[in-house]
Each structure stands twice: as C-alpha cells, then as structure tokens.
Amino acid sequence: MVTVPAPTAQRPFAAERSGVAEPAPVAERSVAEVDPMSTLIGSQAERYQQMVVECLAMEGAREAAVFDVATGTLLAGAARETHFDTARAASGSAALVRETLATLAAVGIAELPKDVLISFTEHFHIVGSVQDDQSVYAFIGVDKAATTYALTRLRFAQIRAHGS
Questions:
Q1: Three-state SS for 50?
Q2: Out of 72, 78, 109, 122, which could bridge 94 as a Cys pair, Cβ 3.0 to 4.6 Å?
Q3: If you ran DSSP here, which 8-state letter would residue 160 be given?
Q4: How many whole angstroms separate alpha carbon 151 and alpha carbon 143?
Q5: What does the DSSP 8-state code read for residue 26?
Q6: Which domains, ranges and CATH numbers included, belong to the chain?
Q7: Is 27 exposed, middle or buried (0-12, 13-18, 19+ CB in 10 A)?
Q8: Is residue 33 very low, low, confident or very high in pLDDT (cuts 50, 70, 90)?
C-alpha cells in the first residue's frame, strides 16, 4: 500500500494569513483516504468532468469545478482564464461549505442549503451539492454582465441533479 502524509487539521490558508506555517503531523494513510479521485471509477470521473464541461457551456461561465467537501480535493475542474486555480478554489469552497454546515447545526437549523451564493462586483460564484450527495459539491463562477443569477442557479441545479 502506498502511503502519504496526512493533511494538517488547521483551516485552509490560515498559515498564509498569519505568515507562520505550523508543522504538519505525519500519519500514514492510504492514497484512497487522501485522494478521493484515486477511488473514482471511470464513469464517475467522466460524469464529474462532463458536469464541468456543461457548466462552462453556460452563458457567462468563467470557471467550474467538482470537489470532495471533506478534503477539498478537486475531482474535476476547468477555467476559461489560465491564471484561475481551480484546485485552490475547490479547497476554499470546501472550507466554506463545512463552515456553513457547522454554523447551521450550531444555530439549530436542520435543513441543508440548496446552494451558497458569493457575489462580487463583476461576477458571482454558486456552490451546491451534487445530487443529494453531501460529500461532493460543485461550484461555478459566472460573469454578471453576461447572465442573471436566477438563470444560472436554475441551470446549475439541473446539471448538479442530473449531470446534464
């Protein structure tokens, strides 16, 4: 069995904000535990990639990704702009989802969110679960000038629910 170091328990990017990196504890784990992509069967990986392709075909789409929410691992992703790091965006989106779910639980809300909107001046991102699987999420980034939130949200929900 191939082993890799376990990820740190600290929040993503915390070391970057503080300027001080804490040493990561090392524990042996199988590749499948660390990299969910290693356990994806062909049809599942192809389905995630197809979801990304369909998202990027939407009017105004800039970037899209499918990720494992527990680890922040990118399962499929692409962007129209070469400087956009979909792996980092997936990791940050996973942290956002985990914190949102923890906050909802802390205030006694049992209902799960359909999606999460992050709005910027020129674009917005939508994050939501793939089908009813709370372990796999997707996000899409869209140019505000090219479409509306309502149309994007509807089509993105269809893609996440059915993969087409």
A1: helix
A2: 72
A3: H
A4: 12
A5: -
A6: 1-34 (no CATH), 41-162 (3.30.450.30)
A7: exposed
A8: very low
Q: Could you tell me the pTM of the whole model?
A: 0.74
- Find where tokens 């691992």 sit: 73
Phi-psi region of 72 (alpha: psi -120 to 50; beta: other; left: phi over 0): left
Q: Give the containing element (helix H, strand E) for 49.
A: helix 42-56
Residue type, 69: V
Per-residue model confidence as pLDDT tens digits over 42-76: 788 899 999 999 999 999 999 999 999 999 999 99
Give burial (CB, 10 Å; 0-12/13-18/19+) of 28.
exposed
